[in-house]
Amino acid sequence: MKLLFYSHYFAPSIGGVESIVMSLARGLAELRTADGAREFEITLVTQTPREEFDDESLPFPVVRRTGFWKLLRLVRNADVVHVAGPALLPAALPLLLRRPVVIEHHGFQVICPTGQLLIESRGEPCPGHFMAGHRAECWKCDPAFGWFSSRKLWLLTFVRRWLSKRVTANIMPTSWLGEQLSLPRATTILHGLAQIQAMHTPSAQQSGVPMIAFQGRLVSTKGAGLLLEAAKILCAERHEFRLVLIGDGPERARLEAIASQPSLLGRVQLVGRLSAAELEKTLQDASMVVVPSLGGEVFGLVVAENMQRGLPVIASDLGAFVEVLGEAGKTFRMGDARELAQCIANLLKSREVMASLGAQAARRAERQFGLHAMIAAHAEVYRRAARHETT
After folding, report:
1. Considering only CA atoms, which of 29, 146, 47 is closest in space to residue 89?
2. Do strands 118-119 and 124-125 pair parallel, antiparallel, or not at all (unpaired)?
3. d(CA 309, CA 86)
4. Strand blocks (E) in 233-307
5. DSSP string for residues in 182-231
6. DSSP notation for 333-388
7. For residue range 281-323, what is the model confidence (pLDDT) as tens digits?
8. Exposure of 384 by Cβ count < 10 A (0-12 exposed, 13-18 middle, 19+ buried)?
């Protein structure tokens, strides 16, 4: 089967979509039929420039920054088209050419013009203004977009939703997202995780000052600023801890300024973006991971990956996080620094509780987020899509 993948962002860009697309495409390329032939002949199209990345190391060809006519030929040649997110042209062309098209949703682009389901001007979850027809609220959500851009994004949301209602299948990484998007022919396939070799062990928590870790892009929606506010509360309550922020982004300078304030001085370290080996080494010393996102989350790879490491996870009570964590982690009311501080303090009081919660998280991750299960479920969606087209 000729399978065309379209992902606007791909390696060397770093992010959740890029990671899932890479794992999925690699896994599908390894599937074999009964006679040993490759079941899927994959071509991946992306708008991300190659830079220093070695495309030849991948088991499938990568077409970068293609124009309209090349994309048209690739779609015409494909048996099934997979689009990572409701990109307009890559979703529309297969429909026009009567090719089966599958959209995997990594955001809220079909129910929210900004794709974040967040009122940017206030940093609050959006109650669903677009779907409720409160169009003026969408237009003023993020003043940075301006009059023209806000209305353009609003109109494009209608187009994305129209396209998504007509594709062969819509894939969601959580059931919660499926409920929010409310699209036909939807199926939930949980993201699968590649095995992390350097697993966390309770011995890493037996001595020294407890380390609280944050891992993610330093942007406002990820909530690192909220975590620093919680850290101030913990300091005032005389808890012993150190806080390490892993990641980089436009918020870094502001966060460094907060970290240098007297109440936090010497407690917080911003280490920037780390290599895979450096990340594992750093997280080996962590007592817990905090994921204080304010919105825009449809699964939570950072949550699942640190569960796999056997680390206790505290996350905001966004619907996707609640589903991923189950009973194997702690949640707090989104945006509430005081409640977050209380959650952290409760875990700091007992290393035994931290170790038990981490072990529970690792078991859940192994049971729920298998890489092979994710690949197999996608493969079945493509098979059904191809059969549907030929009947």
Report:
1. 47
2. antiparallel
3. 32
4. 242-246, 268-272, 288-291
5. --SSEEE-PPPBPPPSS---GGGGSSSS-EEEEES--SGGGTHHHHHHHH
6. -TT-HHHHHHHHHHHHT-HHHHHHHHHHHHHHHHHH-BHHHHHHHHHHHHHHHHHH
7. 999 999 999 999 999 899 999 999 999 999 999 999 999 999 9
8. middle
| Nearest to 45, CA basis, from 83, 5, 72, 77 | 5
Check if the beta carbon of residue 290 is closer than 8 Å to that of residue 213: yes
**DSSP letter (8 states) at residue 62:** E
List Cβ neighbours of 167 (8 Å cut-off, separation of 6 or more). Answer: 91, 95, 101, 102, 103, 185
Q: Give the C-alpha separation, 340 to 315, whole Å.
A: 9
> Tokens 């989104």 sit at which residue?
334
Q: Which two tokens stand for residue 250?
A: 């436009």
Report the 10 Å Cβ neighbour count for 144: 9
**Residue 170 in tokens:** 């819509």
Instruction: Note the pLDDT tens digit of each residue in 136-170.
Output: 899 888 888 888 999 999 999 999 999 999 999 99
| Two structure tokens written together for 188 | 């939930």
Residue 390: is it exposed, middle or buried by C-beta count within 10 angstroms (0-12/13-18/19+)? exposed
pTM beyond 0.85, yes or no: yes
Listed in sequence order, the residues at least 6 apart from 247 whose beta carbon sits closer than 8 Å to its beta carbon are: 214, 215, 216, 217, 218, 222, 224, 272, 273
Q: What is the pLDDT of residues 206-258, one digit of tens each?
A: 458 999 999 999 999 999 999 999 999 999 999 999 999 999 999 999 999 99
Residue 114 near residue 37, CB atoms below 8 Å = no
Query: What's the first-to-final CA gap in the chain, in angstroms?
Result: 16
Q: Are strands 242-246 and 169-172 parallel, antiparallel or unpaired?
A: unpaired
Q: Report whether 364 contacts 326 (CB < 8 A).
A: yes
Q: Which of 37, 90, 38, 97 is nearest to 66 (CA)?
A: 90
Strands 186-188, 268-272: pairing kind: unpaired
Query: Which domains can be identified in the chain, with CATH numbers?
Result: 2-192+370-390 (3.40.50.2000), 202-368 (3.40.50.2000)
